[in-house]
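Quick one:
INPUT:
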């Protein structure tokens, strides 16, 4: 086995208790890192700590990533507990607002952007402050999505928020390069995590088989492998990239929103999905069709 690639490095991972985040935390620990996790779902976080072989190198804080004070405290916990910071993985996510555009509530729209985009801004802001003060550079990684690269790849608010994450990645990569801080995004395709699969994995599997060229399902481990490379010194000359990890979805051309929603839930209902945060979704039937 190769030498651990993250030995003596300290990472902050948001949304690290489940799905992509959990896979990445476990991979970072296996590669020698110390990891501070911010998540709202403390039941899942407790399970992560129980499952982690190196729990002495793992610290979990309940964090609402849309609140600046809580993100600042999360970043501070890394330097306070482990004396340094090297990696920030802004990964926390939700499904967010869905429904026909004429039916979406503005509060649901704003909450989607708060959790998916404002959180990345806050992670970059406070992560970069800590890295600049240390003076040895570092790596910031943002979870975006193929939904942010093309129309028809997800609900409107989610797609727009992820597109904003990609652009924010580009602009801050340029700004922070003089400090040797690399900023990159990962754009997952359909990844079989609790957030994506929901209660009907067989429906998602059928839809993906019709859309995705690569025959295997994407997993959290696939994204963790990309995050590991971006976090490690092996990618020291890579910044400002939005790397697709999607089984060829974008290469083939995709209408994910129609293919992965064959029962038109996004059109028959409007509401908000909290993903794996532990909070229940809410939805209401759409009462009419536009004339």
């Amino acid at each position: 086995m190769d030498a651990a690639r993250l030995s003596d490095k300290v990472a902050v991972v948001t949304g690290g208790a489940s799905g992509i985040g959990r896979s990445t935390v476990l991979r970072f620990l296996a590669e020698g890192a110390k990891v501070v996790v911010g998540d709202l779902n403390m039941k899942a976080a407790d399970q992560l700590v129980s499952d982690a072989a190196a729990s002495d190198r793992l610290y979990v804080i309940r964090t609402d990533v849309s609140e600046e004070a809580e993100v600042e405290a999360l970043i501070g916990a890394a330097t306070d507990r482990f004396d340094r910071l090297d990696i920030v993985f802004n990964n926390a996510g939700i499904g967010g607002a869905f429904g026909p555009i004429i039916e979406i509530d503005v509060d649901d729209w704003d909450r989607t952007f708060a959790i998916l985009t404002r959180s990345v801004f806050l992670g970059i802001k406070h992560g970069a402050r800590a890295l600049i003060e240390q003076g040895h550079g570092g790596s910031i990684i943002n979870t975006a999505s193929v939904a942010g690269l093309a129309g028809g790849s997800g609900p409107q608010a989610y797609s727009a928020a992820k597109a904003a994450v990609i652009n924010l990645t580009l602009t801050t990569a340029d700004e922070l390069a003089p400090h040797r801080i690399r900023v990159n995004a990962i754009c997952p395709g359909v990844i079989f995590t609790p957030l994506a699969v929901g209660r009907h994995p067989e429906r998602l599997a059928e839809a993906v088989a019709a859309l995705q060229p690569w025959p295997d399902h994407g997993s959290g481990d696939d994204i963790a492998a990309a995050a590991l490379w971006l976090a490690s010194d092996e990618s020291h000359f890579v910044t400002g990239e939005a790397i697709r990890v999607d089984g060829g979805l974008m290469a083939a051309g995709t209408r994910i929103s129609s293919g992965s929603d064959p029962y038109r839930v996004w059109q028959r209902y409007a509401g908000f999905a909290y993903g794996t945060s532990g909070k229940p979704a809410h939805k209401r039937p759409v009462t009419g069709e536009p004339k």
